[in-house]
Amino acid sequence: MRHTIGMPYLPLFLDSEGRNALMVGGGAVAARKAELLLRAGLLLTVVAPEIRSELADNDRACCHHRRFEFSDLDDADLVFAATDDAELNREIAAQCRVRHILCNAATDSQGGDFILPSVIDREPIQVAISTSGASPLLARLIRNRLETLLPESYARLAGLLERYRDQVKRDLPARSRSRFWQEVLEGPVADLVHGGRDDEAESVLERLLANPTSSATDGEVFIVGAGPGDPDLLTVRALRLLQQADVVVWDRLVSPPIRALIPKHAEAIYAGKRRSDHQIPQGDLNLLLVELAQSGKRVCRLKGGDPFVFGRGGEEIETLVEHGVRFQVVPGVTAASGCAAYAGIPLTHRDHAQSVSFHTGNLKAGELVLDWQSMRDAHQTLVFYMGTVSLPIIQRELVAHGRSAKTPAALVQQGTTPHQRVAVGTLSSLHQLATDAGFEPPGLIIIGDVVKLYAKLRWYRTGADAVDATTGWFDTR
Ligand SMILES: C[S@@+](CC[C@H](N)C(=O)[O-])C[C@H]1O[C@@H](n2cnc3c(N)ncnc32)[C@H](O)[C@@H]1O
User: Which residues does ligand 1 sit against, CB inside 6 Å?
Assistant: First the structure.
């Protein structure tokens, strides 16, 4: 790395189409750089005694299988000294300097003039990252992080803006333009593009352009699955929409670290949903979403797990459809997937279970009316949501309908969080085991032979699991 006052390198984007690039070297580094050069439209000549096949086979690169000669520099606009011979790279760089040709050398100490950044390509958007040679690995890491913040849809969004640029210039006075673009970028037009609905986005943009003072626009509801608790399990889209929301309506099952991501500017409304303590009745909640959206707000309806798995997302959407409110749905990691993964219990397994089914353990008037007959198969994993309280009924009915009382069974509490606890026993022992260990709702129940795998596969240790030692499946030390 160079030590200068101010920036060690000047970042610039070169109009590279049709320029001549010379690559000296044909190994892995040369091939990686060559790929970038070809993507940027450079006319590439490669000189090396041996050239990797992916480069040699590329019709767009002109390859010479021989040693480098100084005359190769004659027509070059840019040179890449990428051989594994440090001395040769240094000589090429020195010769380029004499001829005023910009040269990129394999390492910083070999005297090159420029470095190639790590690039995020969302054409026409390009983001170049450099650590000024300090650590290419760090540059790649930063790129990976930024990539998650820049979904591919940004490329389409940029394309849409480009198409309307001239028209906006023509139709709007200079003073309103930046406000217009801001509304496009921070409002439903961008949301729709990110949601893959480009045609609708274009219509909204045209409407806005025809009537720029309307301030676009109706609101929208994002029905977002927040996953089972670990904030790292949020999807990229969930996080983006959450950050854009004017109002966030959240459920009790949304974990505190995810609630902490609700932006400061947004109004947060608690929708409740404790067992038998529905803070806002579902019907009122559905209408609240409609009202908020109709007042022009972007509403994020943040729900635990996945909105379409015991999440009543369907009912909320039905009301939105009835009132003509625009919406999008973002899936989340459902509790079954999250808890099973973090408890080390695969829901299916070649040797133990060929299917899995999800059930509700929610009691209606003290009853649990389910198709118990369909749960008899010993090779089927059963998952019960909302079943902690009804566990004795679940156990009784399953045994009465043919599942062995010795069927392995687990209860996962606060799955995927640092407070996760797992109770592991059998159909006959699980309820007592969990009660003795102080397990409390909500919890997720997994029943079937796959539960035995917990003994071998548990990996996320939070320290307070309860295990029925009489099952004999595992060493309880
Ligand atoms: C109303 S349902 C919502 C399910 C949610 N939509 C989903 O896809 O996970 C609530 C039930 O999900 C389960 N649940 C959700 N998050 C959980 C977690 N972190 N640990 C254990 N169970 C969880 C519990 O069975 C709880 O009673």
Answer: 228-229, 253, 303-306, 309-311, 334-335, 339, 385-386, 412-416, 442-444
Q: What are phi and psi of 371, to 5 degrees?
A: -85, 80
Cβ neighbours for 12, distance < 8 A, ≥ 6 positions apart: none
CATH number of 220-330: 3.40.1010.10
Q: What angle do CA 454, 457, 459 make, to 5 degrees?
A: 105
Least confident of 27-31, 179-183, 377-381, 440-444: 179-183
Share of the chain above pLDDT 70, in %: 95
Q: Is 306 a catalytic residue?
A: no
Determine which one of 251, 306, 465, 468 is catalytic.
251
Q: What CATH homologous superfamily does 336-471 map to?
A: Tetrapyrrole methylase, C-terminal domain (3.30.950.10)
Which pTM was predicted? 0.73
Give the distance (Å) from ligand 1 centre to CA of residue 284.
Answer: 22
Band (pLDDT 50/70/90 cuts) for residue 272 is: confident
Is residue 308 a contact partner of residue 236, using CB atoms and an 8 Å limit?
A: no
pLDDT at 476: 47
> Mean per-residue pLDDT for 244-271?
93
- Whether the CB-CB separation of 30 and 36 falls below 8 Å is answered with no
CA of 349 to the centre of ligand 1 (A): 23
HSE, CB side, 13 Å, CA atoms: give it for residue 75: 9
Q: Give the C-alpha separation, 208 to 219, whole Å.
A: 14
Q: What are the residue boundaries of the structural domains of the chain, listed by start?
A: 20-116, 153-214, 220-330, 336-471
To which H or E segment does residue 393 belong?
A: helix 391-400
| C-alpha–C-alpha distance, residues 109 and 280, integer Å | 66
Architecture category of domain 20-116 in CATH: 3-Layer(aba) Sandwich (3.40)
- The chain-wide mean pLDDT, for the chain, equals 91
**Weakest-pLDDT range from 68-82, 101-115, 335-349:** 101-115
Residue 477 predicted with pLDDT over 50? no
Q: For this structure, is 456 an active site residue?
A: no
